[in-house]
Amino acid sequence: MLKISDLKVRYGGIEAVKGISLEVPEGQIVTLIGANGAGKSTTLRTIAGLVKPAEGRIQLKGEDITGLAPDKIVTQGITLVPEGRHVFPDMTVLENLKIGAYLRKDSLEEDLKWIYDLFPRLKERSWQAAGTLSGGEQQMLAVGRALMSHPKIMMMDEPSLGLAPIVVKGIFDIIREVNRQGVTILLIEQNANMALKVADLAYVMETGHITLSGPGQELMKDEAVKKAYLGK
Ligand SMILES: Nc1ncnc2c1ncn2[C@@H]1O[C@H](COP(=O)(O)OP(=O)(O)O)[C@@H](O)[C@H]1O
Ligand SMILES: [Mg+2]
User: Fold this and answer.
1) How far apart are CA 87 and CA 84, in angstroms?
2) Contact, 80 vs 151, CB < 8 A?
3) C-alpha distances in Å from residue 31, one per residue of 2, 155, 212, 232
4) Residue list, CB under 5 A from ion ligand 2
5) Residue 30: strand pairing partners
6) What SS3 state is found at 51?
7) pLDDT digit string, tens, across residues 157-197
């Protein structure tokens, strides 16, 4: 569904992504793992149109979307749940969700029902200021807001960061459920153990390169992956 070919991204003189190629097949959960600074966020931000690539191509269902503006990328069906969640703290849960639908308001009520069915907790807190939600609830809201754009692909940048283990488990349950409902997932995680468990396909990124790829379950058994990312 999503195909990235020979992507290079530079910040000034620094090359953060050094010619990577990867594919995200329709209906799958794909994960990108790797140490801090490997270029994972840069890759997602480039797909989302927030950063312009120096070289390479990004295709969605065979169509070239390289370098499109962020709102056009959302319209094409790709959404990003950014690292750190970035909900609007002074706005209510409901207002935050409505912002996610700013490019398509045609089925607002239906979409809200979908999100509230997925996250009953958000429904209960519909009128609460987003800034007063717990970390896990804010992550739910960030996911809900992203889903309001009806994405074909939802990209998530470190959704488990800073959350307690029990809450992280909840977030991964949500990722599975959203995927089961037909949304393709591209997930970045520091929590390689959890990410590889849910991933149909996984890529390992090191200093701007992709060094390994394969089914998540297979990479979990890889000796180098175990040593570097699973603490075994
Ligand atoms: N806005 C930026 N300006 C300059 N350098 C950046 C910027 N964002 C990231 N970098 C650099 O690009 C490299 C990759 O960063 P990033 O994509 O955030 O990695 P990861 O998400 O894997 O931790 C790092 O060396 C980082 O310092
Ligand atoms: Mg990052």
Assistant:
1) 9
2) no
3) 13, 10, 12, 20
4) 40-41
5) 186, 201
6) coil
7) 999 998 999 999 999 999 999 999 999 999 999 889 999 99
